[in-house]
Amino acid sequence: MSSSNQFLNPATAAQQLGVSAKALRLYEQRGLVTPSRTAAGYRAYGPDEMARASEIVALRALGLSLAQVARVLAGDPQGLEPALAMHQAALESRIRDLAGTAESVRQLRADLAQGKSPAAGELARLLAPESELAVAFDLPWPWGGERFELRDIRPLNYIIGPLGSGKTRLAMALAEALPGAAFLGLDRLEHGGATARAQLHADPALKTRVDQSLAWLVDDGATRSDALIALLAGLESENATVVVVDTVEQGLDHATQEALITHLRNRASTSRPLFLMTRSSAILDLPAISADEAVILCPANHSPPTRVAPYPGAPGYEAVATCLATPEVRARTEGVIAWRPPQVA
Questions:
Q1: How far apart are CA 259 and CA 214, in angstroms?
Q2: For 100-135, how does the pLDDT look when each residue is reduced to its tens digit (9 = 90+)?
Q3: Are 288 and 150 a contacting pair, CB within 8 Å?
Q4: Which domain holds residue 280?
Q5: Is residue 54 packed enough to be buried (19+ CB in 10 Å), middle (13-18) or exposed (0-12)?
Q6: 45, 87 in Cβ contact below 8 A?
Q7: Nearest in space to 263 (alpha carbons), one of 99, 66, 119
Q8: Who has greater pLDDT, 152 or 212?
Q9: Is residue 338 part of a domain?
Q10: Best-predicted range by mean pLDDT among 79-88, 95-104, 212-221?
Q11: How confident is the model over 241-271, as pLDDT tens digits?
């Protein structure tokens, strides 16, 4: 192989493609791209590999599963039509929103030309629409009742913290404080997800949505299970404007977790906000965090929860990183709980 500087190592290639190195490894494992090798055996991505990887990244951004990507790259474009239709609908929705904002600006300029000042709060509403979701409440135990405020709520929000940090209580408090929110607890797994099966039987439209999501996930490498179906039943329900999920990875294997978070990221910009409580590095992949995602850390010392920027050196980043473990490690420690002192009356 040529030693030309056109060949990139996996880290540099991933950075240029806007994905994580883990995503590149996954593409290779599924046979979608085959990097070259240096004389020493290291992976290297040349122009051809980068061009193919760029196609894969674009197809994934459209919402295609890995299996669908493989079929498109092999010359079968059928999976593209529904993906492009959804992308077109999202773009047209954004155009309508921008057109409405532009019309508001035009009207303000027309009023100014006639000597009319903007009404109180009109400029603020224009720059920060009232529909922007925010929440504020007094923190429950184990905190001391401090005021907690969360603004600029992202489509995907991760709640993380060590054992005993209060993250479950924060998740439940968020579900109580956010208008129209639902808390999806671990009781979804009781009796093999019997409640979810009953919901699906009683609601054919919900069953259709769950079946569609399940088919995509299995196509992307997920394992069909009662735990996954119970989770999807809660996520696909239309009874809530926000969903808060307790330990989203519970009962899901590594491949299923990776497929699930890809699925949720694909839907993030067009779906209701999600709060996912997790300690899995397959769910919360720090290098892959986008502008549509936020990390909320519950510190071990019971300081108030805080939003953490997802890059090394940011305050709280190392604490977040040390809370995460692979699904295999999480499975070995499942059932371990932290001792909690009795509350003082």
A1: 10
A2: 888 888 888 888 888 888 777 777 767 655 456 789
A3: no
A4: 135-332
A5: middle
A6: no
A7: 66
A8: 212
A9: no
A10: 212-221
A11: 999 999 999 999 999 999 999 999 988 766 7
In sequence order, what are the beta bridge partners of 182?
A: 243
pTM: 0.78
Q: How far apart are CA 81 and CA 177, in angstroms?
A: 40
Specify whether the CB–CB gap between 273 and 212 falls below 8 A.
Answer: no
Q: By percentage, how much of the chain surpasses pLDDT 70?
A: 91
Paired strand residues for 325? 280
Residue of 251, 110, 144 whose CA lies nearest to 190 = 251
pLDDT value for 340: 47
Cross-strand partners of 37: 43
Read off the pLDDT band of 343 (50, 70, 90).
low
HEC sequence for 56-105 = HHHHHHCCCCHHHHHHHHCCCCCCHHHHHHHHHHHHHHHHHHHHHHHHHH
Tokens of 322: 């040390």
Pair of tokens at residue 288:
């892959």
* CB burial of residue 279 (10 Å; 0-12, 13-18, 19+): buried
How big is the chain, counted in residues?
345
Contact assessment for residue 167 and residue 161, using Cβ atoms and an 8 Å cutoff? yes
Q: Tell whether omega for the bond before 35 is within 30 degrees of 0, i.e. cis.
A: no
CATH label of the domain that carries residue 142: 3.40.50.300
What sign results for the dihedral spanned by CA atoms 272, 68, 208, 191? negative
Number of separate domains in the chain: 3
Same domain, 95 and 32: no
In a domain? residue 339: no
